[in-house]
Amino acid sequence: GQNIDQPTEMTATEGAIVQINCTYQTSGFNGLFWYQQHAGEAPTFLSYNVLDGLEEKGRFSSFLSRSKGYSYLLLKELQMKDSASYLCAVAAGGGNKLTFGTGTQLKVEL
Amino acid sequence: KAGVTQTPRYLIKTRGQQVTLSCSPISGHRSVSWYQQTPGQGLQFLFEYFSETQRNKGNFPGRFSGRQFSNSRSEMNVSTLELGDSALYLCASSFSLGAGGGNEQFFGPGTRLTVL
User: Fold this and answer.
1) What is the pLDDT of residues B8-27, one digit of tens each?
2) Do residue B56 and residue A99 have CB atoms under 8 angstroms apart?
3) Touching check for B107 and chain A: CB below 8 Å?
4) I want to staple B29 with a disulfide (CB 3.0 to 4.6 A). Which of A57, A92, B25, B46 is the partner?
5) Nearest to A95 among B44, B90, B97 (CB)
């Protein structure tokens, strides 16, 4: 089976940087995704990593270490609108099946 | 380009009834996956359809079933509803089979099912 762990809650200040960690155990790894979900809305795709290293997309960056089963999502220049749940998801085996962590609820404060 | 649409958005049923939910993927997308989201368990994979064939299945009882039509629209059915089936059911579409860069899944707004 698969096991994905991420912190339940985090709080950060507007303008700051926050790092959300995700650890996973899986076989047949095909990639790791990060999604953002605002309350009452659908998850939206943020990033995808399949090789070790850092992927940067504007204010958002995601890092992967396959040997350590570890990823993080880095959010820079935090804005109030970044308050949301951040979901780490692993693709393994065939198809598009994703196994999600329970999500990290990020609260951005003034 | 229209996004993923799901109908109905809200549904209230009673125990023992059955329900059918519908999902229309983004035009050109052939893969449709279904997920159940609850506060306690988070997002859990139900099944995936591609070209009218079920390609992957999660660990849900046989009461949960689905199908996909030739136009890639998909339906999922839950029979003999239980209180624990109350959840947000999300549908996600992607262009092809095989998770990867450029083939991310796009989620619909979900159907909120309440079982009384």
Assistant:
1) 999 999 999 999 999 999 99
2) no
3) yes
4) B25
5) B97
